[in-house]
Amino acid sequence: MMLYPSIDKLIEKVPSKYSLIVLASKRSHDMQLNKNYQLDKYQSVKSVGKALEEVADGLLKIEE
User: Fold this and answer.
1) Could you tell me the residue ranges of all domains in the chain?
2) Burial level of 34, CB count in 10 A (0-12/13-18/19+)?
3) Could you read off the pLDDT of 19-40 as tens digits, one per residue?
4) Spatial contact of 28 and 48, defined as CB atoms under 8 Å apart
5) What is the rounded CA–CA span in Å between residue 30 and residue 46?
């Protein structure tokens, strides 16, 4: 079960759940390959959780 960041906060940043999953998946994969992190400290251990934290902080966005 995911506690942080909350889905309500994430949906405010990226209105589509599908787009949110694709964004987090791609960023997670990028983090695993390149080890480039945008935040100084993460609450999550896993890369998908870290990607969602970046979305919640407004660092990742979907371009239209």
Assistant:
1) 7-56
2) exposed
3) 999 999 999 999 999 999 999 9
4) yes
5) 13
